[in-house]
Amino acid sequence: MVITQEFRKKLVTLALIGPAGLWLFVFLVLPFIAILVFAFGKRAPEGGYQAAFTIEQFANLGSRAAAFVNTLMLAPAGAIACLLIAYPVAYYLAVKAHPRHRLLLVSLVVVPFWTSLLVRTYAWMYLLGARGIPHLLELIGIENVRLINTPGAVLLGIVYGYLPLMIMPIYVSLEKLDRRLLEASADLGARPVSTFFGITVPLSLPGVMTGMALVTILLLGEYLIPQLLGGGKVFFIGNALVDLFLQSRNWPFGSAIAVTLVAVVVVVLMVAMRIAWRFAGTRQVDLV
After folding, report:
1. How many CB atoms are closer than 10 A to CB 216?
2. What is the pLDDT of residues 33-79, one digit of tens each?
3. Which of 41, 173, 226, 278 has the most CB atoms lying inside 10 A of its own CB?
């Protein structure tokens, strides 16, 4: 049997993507199929799953409307807040910072990831609690300030926790920027502001959309930050899933919410890709 060059390429491709594809199928596709089956079932009398085929669980999604509203409001708000802070930082690192110091500054952005998000969130619990910033405000005469267990505390925790994930894609996009375009714009008489909004921002949009999609998708399933900084008063979809699966043991309803969350993530990703391709034209745009 003669093995052709094309057949060898297919074998190499299969060898390269086969293990990863098998891993994703076993640990991603199969669990999602199980969740999808649960979503059309009923809650067993003792809790868990009872085989059935009904859309009753999807019809009851309105009972968890608060979790959906909080998630769909605070997740995009957190992503936008991260963007507003991350873009100037990424711009400075990629364009303004001295090359000798750039690696050190980028490392400082990544350093927070070396510490567990749980530990960092607990630190914010102390800072926003009665013995933290409110106590300092009382010393200067500002009393009855409540920071913990509020949407503002959750938003602050979101920005702090996810800011590096927004900075890095924008930094990579800006770092690849052809400096000759900026010089040509200046030589043609364009003001720095016009150059920034006419050249820098459009060319960095792939990085912006990547960061926005990445942060927003992760925030849609966030559990830890709302639980600790929201004190159970600011519920996300992730908190509702934990309650339904582990406490109420209503697996079908939790599965219906999980399937709905996946659908929302897919829509967000598709919209982000469409926007990125529209503004980036024929340039390569990678969101995942």
Report:
1. 21
2. 999 999 999 999 888 999 999 999 999 999 888 899 999 899 999 99
3. 226
CATH number where 129 lies: 1.10.3720.10
Q: At 49, give phi and psi (nearest 5°).
A: -120, 140
Q: Which residues fall within 8 angstroms of residue 182, CB to CB, at 6 or more apart?
A: 195, 199, 200
Q: What is the mean pLDDT of residues 262-287?
A: 70
Query: Rounded distance, CA 250 to CA 244, Å?
Result: 5
CB 86 within 8 Å of CB 168: no
Length reported for the chain = 288
**Amino acid code (one letter) for 91:** Y
Q: What is the pTM of this model?
A: 0.85
Helix (H/G/I), strand (E/B), else coil: 49: strand
Residue 88 in domain = yes
| pLDDT, averaged across the chain | 87
Task: Give residue 249's region: left, alpha or beta (phi > 0; psi -120 to 50).
Answer: left
pLDDT of residue 282: 44
Return d(Cα 257, Cα 273) in angstroms, integer: 24
Residue 119 structural domain: 64-243+253-280
- The tally of domains found in the chain comes to 1
The rounded distance, in Å, linking the Cα atoms of 202 and 123 is: 38
Which residue matches tokens 């594809």? 21
pLDDT of 278 strictly over 80: no
Pinpoint the alpha helices (H) of the chain: 5-24, 30-39, 56-59, 65-91, 99-110, 117-128, 133-139, 151-175, 179-187, 192-195, 201-220, 224-229, 237-242, 251-280
